[in-house]
Amino acid sequence: MQQRSIIITGAFGFLGSAVSAAFARDGCAVAQVDFAAAPASADSSAVLFGGIDLSRHGSAEHVVGEIMRVHGGIDVVINIAGGFLWETIADGTIDSWKRMFEMNALSAFAMCSAVLPALRSRPGARIINVGSASAVHAASGMAPYAASKAAVHRLTESLAAELADDDITVNAILPGIIDTPGNRAAMPDADHGKWVTAGSIVEVIQFLASPAARAITGALIPVTRGTS
Question: CA–CA separation, 67 vs 177, rounded Å?
Fold first, then answer.
């Protein structure tokens, strides 16, 4: 993986930071993209793009153009950007559904679409999307989030078929509840040992980005096993 150019969206969050650090340790040229402002503690070796709303027209194209200028190419795109909302249908609003689709589905679509010309020029290119295990069977209150993540699943499958004749694989991981400080604070009484760790997710993403995963495309891979 050394010297490969990697784009990571949602890169300043808990999972995005872990993924970014792992690829940087592997010697990759990392570009971090997020809606949030770049943190003061960000890795100085990475190219940082804070305040980027990927659901807005032209944002993804601008980021891709700047990364091409700095890194000279793009090999792997990892779409982590997204958000979560718990809301019942009875109390739901159109605005909530729009927000979930913008944050989860449209951000992934925009980056995939913008980066395709760059990926087609690189051997063994990879697109890795982050879906959700909860989008396979949605529980109460999960409809807007699960529907938007299900759209990411269908995007992954369709794009993999579209690129079947190209040297580009497209896959998605479907994490269960991720063990993060935010989730622990929101669910203090839950069995945290059954949650998936960021480190476990990082390992799966690194595998999908590696040459060893060249035969895998269009896959929706559950990553749900906890530590207990």
Answer: 32
Give Cα separations from 181 to 31, 197, 217 (angstroms): 24, 11, 32
User: Contact, 203 vs 172, CB < 8 A?
Assistant: no
Identify which of 3, 4, 21, 1 has the alpha carbon closest to the alpha carbon of residue 12.
21
Model pTM score:
0.95
Q: What is the side-by-side strand order in the sheet with 76-79?
A: 47-49, 29-33, 5-9, 76-79, 125-130, 168-175, 220-223
Q: Which residues of the chain have pLDDT under 50?
A: none
Burial status of residue 72 (CB atoms within 10 A of its CB: 0-12, 13-18, 19 or more): exposed
pLDDT at 116: 97
* 11: Cβ contacts below 8 Å, ≥ 6 apart: 17, 19, 20, 32, 33, 34, 46, 80
| Separation CA 25–CA 65 (nearest Å) | 25
- The pLDDT value recorded for residue 106 is 98
Query: Which tokens go with 90?
Result: 């009875």
User: Is 75 within 8 Å of 86 (Cβ atoms)?
Assistant: no
